[in-house]
Design goal:
single chain; 137 residues; alpha+beta; four-stranded mixed beta sheet; 4 strands; CAP_dom; CAP_sf
């Protein structure tokens, strides 16, 4: 998949997340390139390992990945496999209670979505984070 198309799908997921949050009176999330890089790296690694997981063998956990990209207040992560469109992956996450909880977490302020597409399918990661003082969470 060409870079502009991949970025457009990732950005569309961010928009769909913000629609869901707005409908519920929650603040929209700001896109963060550090979180996108972390999410993209993880999506690529899941595809390489052919494993859908938050932590792959020998690899850092979600918080360590976000910190490694320079994002100092990591918050949560959603992963998915197989959904070919931004709408389908956003709907899948909203149908799952733990994933929906991340999308609608009132303390999260930042988001980065990463997509990797190969012959096996579409590998998705959403990384979420905080701004500001941890006491306010």
């Amino acid at each position: 998949m060409r870079e502009p198309a991949r970025k457009a799908l990732e950005d569309r997921v961010v928009s769909l997340v913000n629609v869901e949050r707005s409908r519920r009176g929650l603040a929209v999330l700001g896109a963060d390139e550090r979180l996108r890089r972390s999410a993209r790296r993880h999506s690529t690694d899941m595809a390489r390992c052919r494993t859908l997981a938050h932590r792959l063998p020998g690899e850092p956990d979600p918080f360590e990945r976000m910190l490694a990209e320079g994002f100092e207040e990591p918050g949560g992560e959603n992963v998915a496999f197989g959904q070919e469109t931004a709408v389908r992956v956003a709907e899948a996450w909203m149908r799952s209670a733990p994933h929906r909880a991340n999308v609608l977490h009132p303390g999260f302020t930042r988001i980065g979505v990463g997509l990797w597409v190969d012959a096996t399918g579409h590998w998705w990661t959403q990384n979420f984070g905080y701004d500001g003082d941890p006491v306010d969470r």
